[in-house]
Amino acid sequence: MPKLNILFDHMRWEEKALYTACEKKGVDFSLVDAEKIFFDLTSNSKPKEIGDVVVQRCVGHFRGMHATAALESYGVPVINRYSTAELCGNKVLNTLIFKRHGIPTPRTYMAFTVDSTLDALQELGYPAILKPVVGSWGRLVSLLNDRTSATVALEHREMMFPLYQIYYAQEMVKRPPRDLRVFVIGDDVPVAIYRVITTDDWRSNTARGGRVERCPVTDELRELALKAANAVGGGVFGVDMMEEDGRLVVHEINSTVEFKNTVPATGVDIPGMIIDYALREAKR
Ligand SMILES: Nc1ncnc2c1ncn2[C@@H]1O[C@H](COP(=O)(O)OP(=O)(O)O)[C@@H](O)[C@H]1O
Ligand SMILES: [Mg+2]
């Protein structure tokens, strides 16, 4: 049996659930703390803690990406692959992939200065949404009602790290007060949830109080989720979608997906399925 590692930096509900799933299945595995290991980048000897397949679970996006690159250099399969995680971790690359593969997605512009972003927003129309290129949990995802609120948000962004001056502006989709999170594990779409807005926040992330309700996995939903997953190279994902005039649009695809709200609400064994998938990948 292949030896599996769960590479983590913060022990969340998800990492504990993956651990428990391995124990239940009798998998040969260990937890590896990314903060306690080091990588010899110029040799082919992997860290002694690393076995045959790694489930990458670092919260830190850049940390996870760099660890994955190093692990792949030793020939160790990582869930998800570096090339996949890179596409998923960046909303500009997400959007470009969706365009290339004909996946319906909200109209989106990119610009690099305050003035050019205001020009883009004028063409896009208000209300619009400004998002950081790298980020999650709805953090800094800002609703811009007009040019005045746009100017304020952009002025704040100007004070941040240069990545925050890659301005990603998106049309506000006229959706019901919820969005969809669709789980993909390999070729399977085991479960989907609605995230229903229950607070005065306009964002539906569960990190912002979005309430989880099970969403039936229709053929349309399954096909679209798998199309998005295959477009980034396949693996384990949370595909975020919104309903607009009776059709679905995909606004992002997440790697290193969280499931602490979905598992209790639906009873679907996402961690067990991820471990099974990783073991299958190890044997390929
Ligand atoms: N174009 C949009 N129109 C309407 N609501 C949106 C739009 N984009 C995002 N949202 C809302 O904001 C939330 C966070 O946006 P998202 O792009 O998923 O960023 P994050 O990576 O931080 O989760 C979504 O779950 C959704 O509720
Ligand atoms: Mg999201």
Describe this structure in words.
It is a single chain. This protein has helices at 13-25, 61-73, 82-88, 91-100, 114-124, 147-158, 219-231, 262-266, 270-283, and strands at residues 4-8, 29-33, 53-56, 78-79, 108-111, 128-131, 142-144, 167-171, 178-185, 188-196, 211-215, 236-244, 247-254. The model has no long low-confidence stretch (mean pLDDT 97). Helix content is 35%, strand content 25%. The strands form 3 sheets. Strands 11-10-9-12-13 form a 5-stranded antiparallel sheet. It is an alpha+beta fold. The protein folds into 3 domains: 1-80 and 268-284, Rossmann fold (3-Layer(aba) Sandwich); 108-171, ATP-grasp fold, A domain (Dna Ligase, domain 1, 2-Layer Sandwich), CATH 3.30.1490.20; 174-255, ATP-grasp fold, B domain (D-amino Acid Aminotransferase, Chain A, domain 1, 2-Layer Sandwich). It starts with a strand and ends with a helix. The longest helix is centred in the last third of the chain and has 14 residues, at 270-283. It binds adenosine-5'-diphosphate (ADP) and magnesium ion (MG). Residues 240, 252 line the site of magnesium ion.
